[in-house]
Automatic annotation (TrEMBL):
Species in which this protein is naturally found: Actinoplanes derwentensis
Keyword entries, A-Z: Membrane, Transmembrane, Transmembrane helix
Domain called GGDEF: residue spans: 222-349
Protein name (record): Diguanylate cyclase (GGDEF) domain-containing protein
SUPFAM superfamilies, per the entry: Nucleotide cyclase (SSF55073)
Pfam entry (one): GGDEF
Source species taxonomy: Bacteria, Bacillati, Actinomycetota, Actinomycetes, Micromonosporales
Bilayer-crossing regions: 27-46, 58-78, 90-108, 136-153, 159-181
Length: 349
């Protein structure tokens, strides 16, 4: 049960983001696997993809590429298995680094030692960085590839084309990736807000009937205690100070109930001044102390527009033993009957 603080904290990684990250890792592993095969074929000399005789530097660059591709794919497997891990961003950044070093090594050696034009491959590393780390990643990768090309291939006749093409790639790919990331985050925030509205009471912020029912369904087969609460004196507050005061009262009571319950279970509002508490795995002897803590918290005075008001609470409980199939509706009806007995007894006293 989350405590009511007036603000909702969205989970940092939800199902849609997990899915997107897995898709990125899968695509990365697939493309690197193709690169691994092509590099191996390139080194073998059995096709016309490579010059008849590779230089020592190209052999070193090719072996380096095979090692970095394999290492990056290992990291991709780890990242794909745990896309919500706090280490995901680091794993992703290291993959970008390995991909970039691989491409730089291949491009620099081939441009320097052979007549092949391979510098367009630098745009691939920039695009990879853009997909993973938006505009910042694209710009940083552009800077790294450009510096490496200028320093290691200073006499290239295509230098202006390399820098111009790559800066355009960085801007276009990076800005589009950043825009997509913002849109993705906004859509997820809207979806979470709609989901929260559908499962929570708008006045108190507590779970509503639908959320309580889903929580109870998740406790199937386990012991489950149900406490039905009804405020005593709420009507008088409404009649004396108005419905706005009643709303303030309900919100404060909801906050107190959430604080009292903590992580023991879930408390929600059924409607009006009725609240429902679900206690999974609770024993019969544990229900009384919880009810006592609730009564003590509820009866504390509440300041409403300069007026101090006090209300009480009547409570009724029902308990489902482990392994039985009693549903939430039946348990609530049983707790409701017990609550009215408690209310009647308090009036009689």
């Amino acid at each position: 049960m989350r405590k009511v603080t007036g603000r909702r904290t969205a989970p940092p990684v939800d199902d849609s983001l997990r899915s997107r990250r897995r898709a990125v890792e899968t695509a990365g592993m697939a493309s690197r696997s193709v690169g691994f095969v092509l590099t191996a074929v390139y080194m073998s000399g059995v096709t016309d993809l490579a010059p008849a005789q590779l230089s020592n530097d190209m052999m070193i660059a090719s072996w380096l590429a095979l090692g970095l591709i394999a290492a990056a794919n290992v990291l991709a497997v780890l990242a794909r298995r745990r896309p919500a891990s706090r280490w995901y961003s680091l794993l992703s950044a290291v993959q970008v680094l390995f991909d970039t070093v691989t491409i730089i090594a291949f491009v620099v050696v081939s441009e320097r030692d052979f007549t092949q034009t391979t510098w367009p491959l630098l745009a691939l590393s920039i695009s990879i960085a853009a997909i993973r780390h938006q505009l910042l990643g694209a710009v940083l990768t552009f800077a790294i590839t450009s510096v490496a090309f200028v320093l290691l291939v200073p006499d290239s006749p295509d230098l202006a084309f390399v820098l111009g093409t790559n800066v355009m790639t960085a801007i276009m790919a990076g800005s589009q990736s950043s825009a997509f990331a913002r849109q993705f985050a906004e859509l997820n925030e809207t979806r979470r807000a709609l989901q929260h509205q559908a499962t929570h009471d708008p006045l108190t912020g507590l779970p509503n009937r639908a959320r309580l029912a889903a929580y109870a369904d998740g406790c199937t087969g386990r012991p489950l205690a149900v406490l039905l609460l009804d405020l005593n004196g709420f009507k008088e507050v409404n009649d004396t100070y108005g419905h706005a005061a009643g709303d303030v009262l309900l919100h404060e009571i909801g906050t107190r109930l959430a604080l009292v319950l903590g992580d023991e279970g879930m408390v929600g509002r059924l409607g009006g001044d009725e609240f429902l508490v679900l206690l999974p795995d609770a024993r019969a002897e544990a229900i009384g102390p919880v009810a006592d803590r609730i009564r003590s918290a509820v009866r504390q005075p509440i300041d409403i527009g300069g007026h101090r008001v006090t209300v009480g609470v009547s409570a009724g409980s029902a308990l489902r033993p482990a392994g039985t199939g009693t549903g939430l509706d039946a348990l609530t009806a049983e707790a409701d009957a017990a609550m009215y007995r408690d209310k009647r007894d308090r009036r009689a006293a």
